[in-house]
Each structure stands twice: as C-alpha cells, then as structure tokens.
Amino acid sequence: MAKQKKAPRPKAETPKGFRDYFGHEVTMRAEMLRKIAGVYHRYGFDALESSAVETVEALGKFLPDVDRPNEGVFAWQEDEGDWLALRYDLTAPLARVYAQHRNDLPTPYRRYAMGPVWRNEKPGPGRFRQFYQCDADTVGSGSVAADAEICAMLADTLEEVGIARGDYLIRVNNRKVLNGIIESVAEGQKRDAFPDGVSPQGSGAFDELKARLIASTDAVMRTLDKFEKVGEAGIIELLGGGRKDASGAFIPGLGLPHYVVHGFLAFLHAKAETNEATLSRLREVVEYSNEGLEGVDELAEIADLLAAQGYGPDRIVIDPSVVRGLGYYTGPVFEAELTFDILDDKGRKRQFGSVAGGGRYDDLVKRFTGQAVPATGVSIGVDRLLAALREKGRIDAREVGPVVVTVMDRERMAEYQAMVAELRQAGIRAEVYLGNPKQFGNQLKYADKRQSPIAVIEGGDEKARGVIQIKDLILGSQIAETATHEEWKDRPSQFEVPRDQMLAKVREILDMHGL
Amino acid sequence: MAKQKKAPRPKAETPKGFRDYFGHEVTMRAEMLRKIAGVYHRYGFDALESSAVETVEALGKFLPDVDRPNEGVFAWQEDEGDWLALRYDLTAPLARVYAQHRNDLPTPYRRYAMGPVWRNEKPGPGRFRQFYQCDADTVGSGSVAADAEICAMLADTLEEVGIARGDYLIRVNNRKVLNGIIESVAEGQKRDAFPDGVSPQGSGAFDELKARLIASTDAVMRTLDKFEKVGEAGIIELLGGGRKDASGAFIPGLGLPHYVVHGFLAFLHAKAETNEATLSRLREVVEYSNEGLEGVDELAEIADLLAAQGYGPDRIVIDPSVVRGLGYYTGPVFEAELTFDILDDKGRKRQFGSVAGGGRYDDLVKRFTGQAVPATGVSIGVDRLLAALREKGRIDAREVGPVVVTVMDRERMAEYQAMVAELRQAGIRAEVYLGNPKQFGNQLKYADKRQSPIAVIEGGDEKARGVIQIKDLILGSQIAETATHEEWKDRPSQFEVPRDQMLAKVREILDMHGL
C-alpha cells in the first residue's frame, strides 16, 4: 500500500503584528485597569462592554468604497452579505451603542470601557495590531463642567495607579481658541486698515482672507501638529513660504501672511506663569473673535471648576501649546504627560511624554440619528502607562513564583499534595512538582524557572524523622552570586524544621523577603 | 445647484448574534473573573493572554478545504494571502502558544486564560457569537496528580466566587474505562465460550466483534451522550436494534449484541454509595481490559489524592454517568454541577446543572511539533456561573448608582463640584448633575434612572443659611410604595443638615442601607 502523504505541520506562530502576553504582563495590566475602573466608578461612570465585532456600516469611518472595505480595519463579509469588522477604537462603538440604546440610557450618559482594539496596519517594532484602550466619556452634556470633571478624574486616576503628584501634568487647550485666532487676525487687520470704522467698499480683501483662512483650518492644524518636530522656525516656514526638509526637498508652505503666522505663534507661546496670565494673553490673541473669546471663557471656567475641587495648575494647567488632537476635537482638549526623565535607546535623557489624551467632540451620534449630541472624553494609553509604572519601579518587573513542593518519592504524592493544600489554604501560592520527578535537579531547575521563592523537600529520611527541608531560593541565589565561602557557611539558605512547622517557616521566609 | 444626495444614515445595531453589556453586568463578571484568577494563581497557574486573532492554519480544526475557510469561525484573508480568524476557544491558542514558546516556558506549564471567544454559528435566544471562557490547563504532565489538582482547584474556585459547599458537586469519570468496557465485554464473551482456555481456531468471531466495537467507539460515545435525553430504554434501543423517535421516524441502532449493551449500562450505573464501591463495580465491568483497569486505577488515585487534601466525595466524586466530553478527552474527565433547584421557564423545578467541565487530552501540540504532550485542564462557563450566582443572591441584581449633587444655581457649579470632590475623596461614588439643570424634576428623574441612593440639594435659600438638603431616595421610594400618610409624616426621607455635615450624613444614610 502506498504511504499516505502527510499534511505539512502547521507553523506555531502568532499572525504578523500580534503577540502573546505572559504571567505578570497580564496580571499587572489587569490590576492597573481594575484601579482605573475604581476611580471611574467613583466618578459615577458606568462600565460598558460592547461587542468586539461591529458592522462596517456602524463603524463608519471605513465605509466601503472599494470591493473590500478593510482599509485600516480587519473586515470580512458574512454569508448573507453584511460586512463585519473588529472595532478599531472604543469611541466609534460608543456612538453606535448610544444611538441604539439612547432611550434606555440616562442623559447625560457617563460610561467607561476597557479592552482590546484592532488595527489592520503595517506592524512595526513595538507597534502591534491588537492593543488595549481604556476610555471614559460623558455623552449628552455640553457643560464644560463635564470637561473639567474628566481632567480631575484623569489626575486622580494617574495617582491611583502610582504616578506621584509632581510626576504628571494635565495640559488643557481649546479648539475654539484656535478657530478664534483665524477669525481674529483677519478681523484685526481689517480694523487696523480702517481704524475709523469699516468701509464696506474696502473690506473685501480681508473678507476674502478670512474665508481663505477658515478654509485652510485643517491644513493649519496639521502644520501646528508638527511643532515639536520642526520647531518654531519650521512652523513659520510651513505656514508661510515653504520649507526645505532634511533631504533638500522643498515642501510648499500655506502661504499665509506674516501677521497671521504671528497670531498662531502667539497662540502656541501664550502659556505664562499662571493660568490667569495665560488666559489674558489668549484673550488678546483672539480679541476680535466671538468664538475665540468663548473658547477662552471655557478655559477660564474649567480652571475655576478645578481650583474649587483642589486641582491647581501644579496638576492641571491651561497650556495652548497642546496641539495634538486639535484637528479631531471641537472644544476643550486635554493631554496628560509624565514629566519625569527617562533614558532613551541612545542613553539620552528625555521626558516620558504623553500617556492619555481627550477632548470634546460634539458630533458623536449625529451620523446615526441626525441629532448632534455633545460628548467629551479621555483615552488612556494602557501600554504606555504600564511602561511608565515599570520605569518608576511602581510595579515589579519580575513575578514571584509559587512555593514548590518537590517530589522525592512518587508513592507519597498524596502527602505532597496535602502540603500544598495546607499552604494554599493559608493563602500562599504553592504547587507540587508535576513533571517527571526522577531527577531532583530538574525539579530545582523548574523552581528556578518559575522564580519560586522556596522549595520544600521531604525525602524518605526526613519522613522517618518527621522533618522537612525548606530551601530559601532567593537567599540561596543571592549567596551564590555574592557571598564568600565564610559567609556562605554562616548564612545557610536551607532549614530543617519539624513537619508541623512547615507553614510557619515558609511564612517567616516570605515575610523576610517582603513577599 | 442641485442638492447633494445624502448618504442614508447607518443603522445603529450590533451585528446579529452580538450584544453589549452594561454597568453591573460588566463589573460583576470582572469581579468574578478576578476571584477565579486569584485561586488559579494560588495554585501556581500563570496568566496567559494570547492574541484574539490566529492564523487559520494554527487553529487547525477549520483548515481550508473550501474557498472560504470560515466554517464555524470568523475568518478573512490578508492582502498577502494568509487566512486569519478569531479564536473559537482558548485551548487551540494554548496549543499554538506552547508549541511556539516551549523552550522558554517551564515544564510542566500551568496557565490560565480568560477572555472572549467567537463562534460563527447561527445565533439563538441566549446564544451569542461572542462569549467568555475561563480556562486553566497543565501542559506537560502525564501525572493524574495534575488531574486531581484541577478538580481541587475547581472546588476552591466555586466556593471562592460564592457557591456554598453542598451546592455543587464535581463528578469524575475516565475515558479509559469506557474504552476498557468495549475491550472487556468482547474478551469476557470469548472466555465464557472457551472456559478452559482460548482455542485459536474458535476465537475468530470474538476478535471480529472486538474490532467492530473498537471501530464504533465514537458512535457509542455519541449514543451514550444522549442518556439524559432518551433515558435507559432509549440507550438500549440505540445501541441495539434501533428506535422510533417522537415523530415516528425510525433511527437505526448500532446493532450491538445484548451483552455489550449491558456492559455499557453497567458502566453508566456503576455509581455507588462510596467511591470504593463505585471503583469496585467498575473493576468488574472492565475486568478483562488492561486499559480499563488502568483507567479505574487512575480514578482510585485521583480519589486518594483528593482525600489527602480534604476533598471528600461530598465535593468531588467518582461518577461513571458523566458522559459529556468522553469523546473529546483521552483520560480523566470532570464536570462541575450545581445541585440546587431552580425554576425553569414553565415554573418547574430543575437542577441548575453544569457550570464547568474538563479533562485530559494528550495530543495538544502534536499537530505542530510531532511530539505528543500530555495536558489536562478545565473550562468554566462564565455566563452560566454568573447566572447561578445571581440565582443564589450572591450578586446583587441591581447596581447602586452614585450620590447625585443637584444643580440649583448654574453659577455655583464650582461649589457643587467641590461637594462631589469631597464625597469622592471619602471613597463615595458621587457626581454632579451635568445635564440641563433648568428643570429640577429632570434631575430627580435622572437620579432615579441612575439608581442613586441619595440626592444632595443646595438652593439659594440653603446656601444663605449654610445648610443643604439630603434626600434619601431609597427610603423615599420605599415610603412612596408602602407607607400610609401617617408613616410618611413620621419617616421623613429628606434631611436638612449644615453644609459641613454633608459627608457625615451621607455616610450615615449609606450605612443604614448597608451600602
């Protein structure tokens, strides 16, 4: 009979851009999310877990205009024809949920959500196609009190997970102020040209300028977003006549007049020593714009509301140089930065940077219902915040393994199991070695790989004498690394105790190591 | 200019078979999973969170043999040609993870995993296409001590989440015993026919029977699985000559001889008063099969190991009538059942039933590496267990909302925010009403919808007098429902206290309601 051809073995690999998380990585994230959820809950936010799968239609941003609508998302077609996709963030599902359930939900609706999202993007180093987000949003309130509350909650959250006061700063800006500048600089020029009042005949050029500026708001926003990258000189070039980049290629500028560019720079630099001084500078920049002045008033109100709750500018500060997100949001925007230094890949000091951001976006559910619903919210970068906590030593890099009860005599497995049962019932993490017990060395190697603090040993001799051996593996490895022979003799890391003192001795050793 | 045709509004709907989880549903599940993870961790199991997306190749069971390999899974093709899919359980990913990382993982590898899985199946009432699983497995140990440990851990887990001892029972069976019956009945018949020793000439018919029985093991298993549905008489018919179902249609039987059918029934009915008696009955049934006797020995050892740790048959019991899963597993199988009665849809009493199951499956990673790796594990039905806890009153059906500070005077928002800040800092869930405050009635309606226990009110008059009103909404609604007019006068549900006693009074009311 001919040999049947075997199917080739499948590759044991995660798909490209995906990864697995092990042990400590999982539990530390779960613990951090639990603390965050605790703060959100205390602020009156309710949990929401929407389905990971949405219709492409409901997700919206990626509506099909090609045969396969998977630009940026993982999407597939159902047999009956509907396109489904994995959610790419937690905000688009919130819009769908609110539109779907709005008659049953309270208004305003405060909700938090945490979980993985998926992006069908080219993976890169440290950039994965599945990652966690952790959001809180208030839907249905146009009050800036809702924005202020989000900022206060963000400060509380950072402190709750272990970022000390002084190690973070929440910076607040307002999209309306930026809109106001565009309006105000044009208006200001007009007034300068016609100090005695506007001549309807002569103002045409300025009205044209204003229209052109407003039309280029998005381009301005994208340019200001490059502030950190290209610096002030770069911004001046990009808003004005254009700029040669590092490769020598010429990037055309937006061609804005000098005094307009000046207005934007004044905005970026408006941050002063106190919130009051900042706000007063901003008022000057937007003096001829109602929307701009409204934006400054909102910032002033946010600062007042926060001050009344004890959140001063040492924690939450008005700072117009926060540009990120101005393009997306419609009102106040906020960003939480960690202010301590870390060393980058090349050993240079740099600030840790942003771990959370958010703002007001008032068109959340309009797509579904036709009605504008105001909303404001924040999203925490879970992985970055975890990295920060690790950096600050707030979470242990290594997990503590279980106490390992070794198997010296396979026939007495029941007795070894009774030992771990005793330890576990006392709340101590413990296990019996369940591999092949023949080679004792393998059992200790296993304990080492598990980062076990203690090994318990009961051979036939110990059994006969009613004692057990308890090996302090942490002390043992310290001694092995650093001690001289004399110290080694003086500081035994293995103890013989009567069987009925096992629990007490294990406790003593764990306590000694602060475990 | 012609009006631009608007795109139709997207439907705000979850895809068919998916749902959203709100508030309490989310937090209660998270809390239960946290407790379960705590027990698993104490037993030495490490967390694992594998990616939700796997290659179809790695998932295996659903390998492409058609154009679109999405039978049972949600799958899609990457631009470069790989087929990806959402995981349909947590075991297939464990196999991939262990094969991929086996050089870095300890052996045995104890891991737990919890999270959503996805099934591309026809949704039905209460049956969703995304649901939670919560698994613990020991990979790389062939010892029945690993199986016993899983059973002990399952008992601890159920008690930890709030199922009282006596309200659950973990029943243990062994696939090898079932295999042994098939071997043993054939062998037994042969020995009866040739009491003085086997005649090589005459034994052909029995060898044929044995081969036929072994070939029909899967069909036998599927039939035994119908025990609960069709009862003993039905099983006899289905294993034997066939059976007419309720509609009158004839279902052909497996055509097994009567004495074989009798063997299987003896197996199903082997459960006796004590484990010892059960095991001794099983030994009789499989007396001529080495595999069967090995299976009984394993069950005996599991019972001994558990007894040594204090888990008696009141919690974990040998019970051969556990048939579910016998087709899938290769050794010991276990099932946790809740033994208390509930009322079904039609008001009839019935047992709550199974909430967890598992067993030994020894071919986990062979697909990937060619090497057989023994493994054993358990999976908890998260949603069923939550339903059970709700049934037993172990988790509140209703969530307690935040204390709501009402807004009587929009200009004093900062003061109201300061009030909630004070409450939150004392750990009390609280919020300011952030909707339009004009109609006070809406604020109280909101508090009602949020299930708020308390509303705090400070109008201009109260402010002037330095007092606030505190409304006990729980008491208020109790009184509204049940009290007479006199009682209503005697038991005021609204209290006026000085502003600086707000926190104390709120605490007092919450304490009174046990919140």
TrEMBL record, chains A, B:
Leading EC class: ligase
Subunit-level organization: Homodimer.
Residue ranges of every copy of the Aminoacyl-transfer RNA synthetases class-II family profile domain listed in the record: 1-402
Keywords: Aminoacyl-tRNA synthetase, ATP-binding, Cytoplasm, Ligase, Nucleotide-binding, Protein biosynthesis
Pfam family membership, one: HGTP_anticodon
Reaction(s) the record says it catalyses: tRNA(His) + L-histidine + ATP = L-histidyl-tRNA(His) + AMP + diphosphate + H(+)
Superkingdom of this protein's organism: Bacteria
Gene3D superfamilies with a match to the protein in the record: Anticodon-binding domain (3.40.50.800), Bira Bifunctional Protein, Domain 2 (3.30.930.10)
Ribonucleoprotein in keyword set: no
E.C. code: 6.1.1.21
Main subcellular location: cytoplasm
Location(s) in or outside the cell: Cytoplasm
Similarity remark: Belongs to the class-II aminoacyl-tRNA synthetase family.
Nucleotide-binding listed as a keyword: yes
GO MF annotation list: histidine-tRNA ligase activity
Protein name: Histidine--tRNA ligase
